[in-house]
Design goal:
It contains 25 helices and eleven strands. It is α+β, with helices and mostly antiparallel strands and 632 residues long. It folds into five domains: 71 residues, no CATH class; 98 residues, no CATH class; 43 residues; 67 residues; 272 residues, 2-Layer Sandwich (Nucleotidyltransferase, domain 5), CATH 3.30.420. β10 and β11 form a beta hairpin. It holds the Pfam family rva_4. InterPro entries: Integrase_dom_put (IPR058913).
């Protein structure tokens, strides 16, 4: 304890002053202490510490007529109460000891951990050191939930230890007994299942407090303040800005391994640190700060980080009423030379991707019409308007949009025709800008991978067997990769942009699901799902066969080969698909070595055969001696 006193060397001798000071304290203690302590005990303690006190005092002996500040208390003196003078000084101070300079954390240092109990600490301690005993008692009192003033009172009344608030705060900092050093108690206040589910879902999506509050109102109808949302999150032991590396859940090696896996196996080499952070959170359940992701990416790919910083994208103003006002749709043909086609739907309000469909063609009106009905069944209705470019593939989709809008939108036939809007491809900017981002963030590494295999001679797109095996593997694998990219895109927050009127600084999934938070409403035209399912059953009775991307006979052979080598599609990614391709190709060639393909036209392929030994007749596999393989 630091004591301020004035000493006149002419009046008090250095050897007499500490003795007089402590004898005054002992006399006062013997007359007032509730716990009977013998005079010999205090006298012996005085003698043990007198030597160190004399040394501390004598270091100031050469200075005369000056005010001196000394810390003459030894480590053993922690069990002694403070002197009357200092106790009076500490009590008169108006400074909050819990927020003084001795406290290393801002705010209160005495948060309640468990329900306080008034029982005294009776557990034995294998130490006779007064400071260790005091530390042990203070720690137990803190774990019991007692706060600073209560601890000071218990120490004085039950243990005969007098200490000020300020000294207690300093001692706790020295002993590592601050609030941040103690284990938090589990708050067992139960929450209603709907509230709990909403909070957990919002936390997994990385929403902030305002977004969690709005989503809670939207999903449960419970209106609470931000402080209550914080309390709910504390009840569930959830943090908005978690750092799994700091808490020890993951190591830096695991972070590097996850990012390397995302870049090599998933080929996410074109995404920045913000998108990579969401990828780690959504796919690897790793929550770390953006700065840490930035540092790792800068270490792994410094050239790519510098290139992304130089690029800029100027966004156009696009005014819509709200979600499901306009659906923009278009096909993506950048991978069409390799047999992979994509058709996508996006909500124009905040460009949430409603669906991405991968197949060998995106020009078939039946496929596009079925895609549209699937989305309508999934969302529960139709948008006010669908916009697309001029093309024959949108004929059936336009028919469904106008017919269902006429039936369930409460409009006449003329108004229903305006619900389908055709425009030039370069003016369908919402979906076109999405293709640009998809190329940079997802497709470019995949195209490079395919071109590299072709250039190295590992894949021949003109070989019929290799082409069929490529489609058999790549269509479902590419669809899975697109699904991951869509999930990241829909749940990634956009930067705040004050130059546009559409929602910013939030994710498309959040704004699409909670339009009330942005002062608008959902524009969906509700259509019973039974009506949509009836249309699908009537117009597409063979919808399962429509989405087979290889002939049935080849699919059976390829699936049998996958079983032989012990591989399934759940273990195949765009990063290791070529390894599986090279493992399956020899077996399929061996099984089909006696079958010769005769490519008579660009749209169909017929083959003649001689039945090899040990292989069933091709008639048994296909039911016919001629099979036509059609693909774009």
């Amino acid at each position: 304890m630091i004591l301020d006193y004035e000493q006149d060397d002419s009046t008090h001798e250095p050897d007499d002053w500490p003795t007089w000071r402590f004898r005054r304290y002992i006399d006062n203690k013997l007359s007032t202490s509730s716990s009977a302590q013998s005079y010999s005990h205090w006298e012996s303690s005085l003698k043990e510490s007198q030597g160190s006190l004399h040394n501390s005092h004598s270091s100031f002996g050469n200075e005369n007529n000056s005010t001196k500040t000394m810390d003459f208390r030894s480590s053993e003196e922690a069990s002694f109460p403070a002197c009357e003078d200092q106790a009076f000084i500490d009590q008169e101070s108006n400074e909050d000891p819990l927020t003084s300079d001795y406290t290393e954390e801002s705010g209160s240092d005495d948060e309640s951990f468990v329900t306080p109990e008034e029982s005294e600490i009776d557990e034995p301690l294998d130490s006779n050191n007064p400071e260790d005993i005091m530390k042990y008692i203070v720690k137990k009192l803190l774990l019991k939930g007692h706060k600073g003033p209560k601890i000071v009172k218990i120490l004085k009344e039950k243990h005969g230890i007098s200490i000020s608030y300020r000294t207690l705060a300093r001692r706790r900092a020295e002993w590592g007994l601050q609030r941040v050093d103690l284990p938090l108690a589990h708050i067992s206040t139960p929450l209603d299942p709907p509230i709990r589910a909403s909070l957990l879902s919002s936390h997994r999506k990385g929403l902030n407090l305002d977004e969690i509050q709005a989503r809670l109102v939207q999903e449960t109808g419970v209106t609470v303040c931000i402080r209550t949302v914080k309390r709910y999150l504390q009840t569930l032991q959830l943090k908005l800005l978690e750092n799994d590396v700091q808490t020890g859940k993951v190591s830096m090696d695991e972070v590097f391994e996850a990012i390397n896996h995302a870049r090599t196996s998933l080929l996410h080499t074109g995404i920045g640190y913000r998108r990579m952070r969401f990828l780690l959170m959504r796919q690897y359940n790793i929550r770390i700060p953006r700065q840490l992701v930035y540092d790792v990416l800068k270490h792994l790919d410094p050239a790519g980080m510098a290139a992304r910083l130089r690029q800029g994208f100027k966004r156009r103003i696009y005014r819509t009423y709200g979600p499901n006002h306009i659906w923009a749709c278009d096909g993506h043909d950048k991978l069409k030379p390799y047999g992979i086609c994509v058709y996508g739907f996006v909500d124009a309000w905040l460009r949430k991707i409603l669906g991405m469909f991968v197949h060998t063609t995106n020009n078939d009106p039946q496929h596009v019409g079925l895609y549209f009905l699937h989305l309508a069944s999934k969302t529960g209705g139709l948008p006010l308007k669908v916009t697309s470019d001029y093309g024959t593939e949108t004929v059936e989709m336009a028919t469904y949009q106008m017919w269902l809008s006429y039936r369930f939108g409460g409009i006449n036939g003329e108004e229903a025709t305006k619900r389908m809007h055709f425009t030039k491809s370069n003016r369908n900017q919402k979906i076109e800008s999405l293709w640009s981002q998809m190329m940079k963030q997802h497709n470019r590494p995949i195209i490079d991978s395919i071109v590299t295999e072709i250039e190295n001679g590992y894949y021949d797109p003109d070989d019929e067997i290799e082409k069929l095996l490529f489609l058999f593997l790549w269509i479902p694998v590419f669809q899975s990769s697109v699904n991951i990219w869509v999930d990241l895109y829909n749940n990634s927050k956009r930067r705040r942009d004050y130059s546009i009127t559409l929602p910013t600084a939030c994710s498309p999934d959040y704004s699409y699901g909670t339009p009330e938070a942005f002062g608008t409403t959902d524009q969906l035209v509700n259509v019973p799902s039974q009506e949509i399912e009836l249309l699908i059953a009537q117009d597409y009775p063979n919808c399962q066969e429509m989405f087979q991307h290889t002939p049935e006979w080849f699919r059976l052979i390829a699936e049998r080969t996958m079983q032989q080598i012990g591989v399934n599609f759940s273990a195949i990614t765009v990063g290791n698909v070529w390894i599986v391709f090279q493992q399956m190709l020899p077996s399929i060639r061996t099984e089909l070595e006696d079958y010769t393909f005769d490519s008579s036209s660009s749209q169909s392929s017929q083959y003649s055969h001689q039945e090899p030994e040990g292989v069933g007749s091709i008639d048994e596999i296909t039911g016919s001696s001629e099979v036509t393989c059609e693909y774009e």
